[in-house]
Each structure stands twice: as C-alpha cells, then as structure tokens.
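Appendix B, record 7
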Amino acid sequence: MTKTSVTLLALTCAFTLAACGGNQAEGEHAAGAAQASSSAGLPAGHIEAGMTLASKGGTGIAACASCHGAEGNAPIDGMYPKLGGQYADYIAHSLQAYRGGTRAGGNADIMAAQAKALSDQQIADLAAYFASVPTQLRDLQNAN
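Structure tokens (predicted):
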C-alpha cells in the first residue's frame, strides 16, 4: 500500500467517524450522567450502568473488560480493539450490527454471541460509557 493510499484511507476513516457523531470532550460527562440518544435510534445511555456492564458483564453477557481490558483501553491481545474514548455512535452502531448479524470479519463471531444478549438500553449504556473514557486511540497521521 502506498503512502498516498494510507493517507486516503486514514482520511476516509476520519470523515466516516466524524459523521457518526462527536465524541465528548474529556471531563464533559459527570460520572453516571446520561448521554443523549444517538443516530442509532437508541435511548439515552447511562455511563454508570455501562461501566458496570463493561467491567462485570451481565446475564448471558461477558464483561467487555475480559477481552478489551480495563476501560476498554488494555486489550488482552492485539486482535481486540481499544474501545475507550471511541465515538458513542460508532460503538452503538457496531453493537447493533453484531447483534443483527450484519457485521462480519475479525472477531464477528465472538462479538455476535455477546451482542445477541444486549438490549437497546444496554447498547446505549455501553456506548455512553466507552465514549466517556479518556481515549488512548491515535490516528494514522504521519504513519509510514
């Protein structure tokens, strides 16, 4: 892949994520505050409920931290993405697609099994929580 191709891919990803919705500025959410509903058509998410679900799991749902690590920022393996600081709409749409069986590739089988048990409220809560976590994500600007 050429440097121009990588740059175009990075720009396309950045514009796509920006179109999904804005990530909240660090510290903008009070712990447990509700996040407004998203373009995913979900109810308002609750950060505190999402944090509990992500760290402890629930009925038929493994804790997100089992694979994605603490606050979604310490994956147990490089095959698992960092979720902390990700756009809430991206998390919500991704979980809905896994639940509906329309997202493929990578760890789709693992995630589909987890997401099938999630309610719309739980998806909104997880999305609100991961969006509230300080990000460790980085873009591909100046990647070689």
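Remarks on this record: Residues 3-132 form a domain with the Cytochrome Bc1 Complex; Chain D, domain 2 fold (CATH 1.10.760.10). The beta strands are 34-35, 45-46.
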